[in-house]
Amino acid sequence: MSGKLYQSFILLISLVSFAFNADAQKLNSAYGALGGTFLPLWVTHDAGLFKKYGLDVDLVFVTGGTLAVTAMASGQTPIAGAGASMVPIAGSGADIVFIADMVDMPYFLVARPEIKTKEDLRGKRAGISRFGSSSDFATRMALEGLGLVPDRDVAIIQIGAVPDRFAAMESNIVQATVLTPPINLIAKRRGFRIIANVGALGLKIPDSAICTTRSYVKANRETVRKYLMAYLEGIKVLKSNPALSMKSLSRYTRVTDAESLEEAYRFYAAAVPERPYVDLPSVQKVIDFYKKGRPEMAKLKAEQIVDMSVLQEIDQSGFIETLYKK
Questions:
Q1: How far is it, in rounded angstroms, from Cα 256 to Cα 183?
Q2: CA-CA distance, 306 to 81, in Å (whole number)?
Q3: How far is residue 183 from each of residues 11, 23, 276, measured CA to CA in Å?
Q4: Alpha-carbon gap, residue 175 to 193, rounded angstroms
Q5: Residue 244: φ, ψ to 5°
Q6: pLDDT tier at 18 (50, 70, 90 boundaries)?
Q7: Distance CA 321, CA 236 (A)
Q8: Residue 65 and residue 266 in contact, taking contact as beta carbons nearer than 8 Å
Q9: Of 266, 129, 263, 126, nearest in space to 196 by CA
């Protein structure tokens, strides 16, 4: 099929799916955080774009990317939103792949007001969602970047989702945690201190990404295509419709402060790429990080857990370019 014919075919799918969305295919899709990194997915859902492309997607929140990946690997939610937490599970032999990026590591290590320097963190506790999650990875990266040894200099404590970690820090159960916009902005206004910007480490590590299994891609390639087409248009809506995007951001994060929502929106509108390809070298860095003490991951390579073939097909058809010409 020629490029022009393929492009016409892709656009035809959009029109036909829209016309017959009453018969949309039902699909559960899990995601593992409430901090804002899944904003593109929320906007896609709230703008009705999954239904436009023939899918009736129910977004299911689970606490931590690890549980989202586990739900996906078991077939409960065949396509899920997760990030670095996917890597150690894939390293254990699970048939899991990244198929598109969402937001790269937007974490900030935030601490209680009395924590003024990195040395003040020694002997303290940092809260994460779950071991193996993106928040766990980001916390350990931030601490190592500060010259501190996780688990030795700073205890790592499982707390739960972003609101739970923030509450635990406010009540001094933990003295630090990693937060994303807009929650880190709320924390700063309440007197908490930003100790480190994980994003400043220069890694394009997917904190949130779209994942599925190779077997699902093989057996349900058209479903994956429709999901990604909806998501790609969701990115366009995010960037062009601040009102809808901030409404979604407020709804899922439960933040109502207008100034924080506006600042967070500007952050994500700039951070989310129009062409959400996963950065293989950064995924390899995550693998190398988790390899320590895990011999089963010794031979794992980024290419084994990334499949961008469907995204590439959609992009090469001219679909993304057409979105931004509208």
A1: 11
A2: 14
A3: 38, 38, 24
A4: 11
A5: -65, -40
A6: very low
A7: 11
A8: no
A9: 126
**Alpha-carbon torsion (286, 29, 276, 266), positive or negative:** negative
Distance CA(304)–CA(313), nearest Å, equals 19
* Residue whose structure tokens are 């774009």: 49
pLDDT tens figures, 76-121: 899 998 888 788 888 888 899 999 999 887 888 999 999 998 899 9
Q: Which two tokens stand for residue 286?
A: 């995550």
Map out the domains of the chain with their CATH numbers: 3-105+205-323 (3.40.190.10), 108-201 (3.40.190.10)
Residue 1: is its pLDDT beyond 50?
A: no
Using alpha carbons, list the distances in angstroms from residue 90 to 26, 27, 62, 124. 26, 22, 19, 31
The CA distance from 212 to 96, in Å, is 6
> What pLDDT sits at residue 292?
77
114's enclosing H/E stretch is none
Q: Which of 69, 100, 53 is nearest to 227 (CA)?
A: 53
Residues 169 and 110: beta-carbon distance below 8 Å: yes
Q: Indicate whether this model's pTM tops 0.70.
A: yes
For residues 35-44, average pLDDT = 92
| DSSP letter for each residue of 58-88 | EEEE-SSHHHHHHHHHTTSSSSEEE-TTHHH
Say if residue 245 is exposed, middle or buried (CB neighbours under 10 Å; 0-12, 13-18, 19+): buried
Q: With beta carbons less than 8 A apart as the criterion, state whether 133 and 34 touch.
A: no
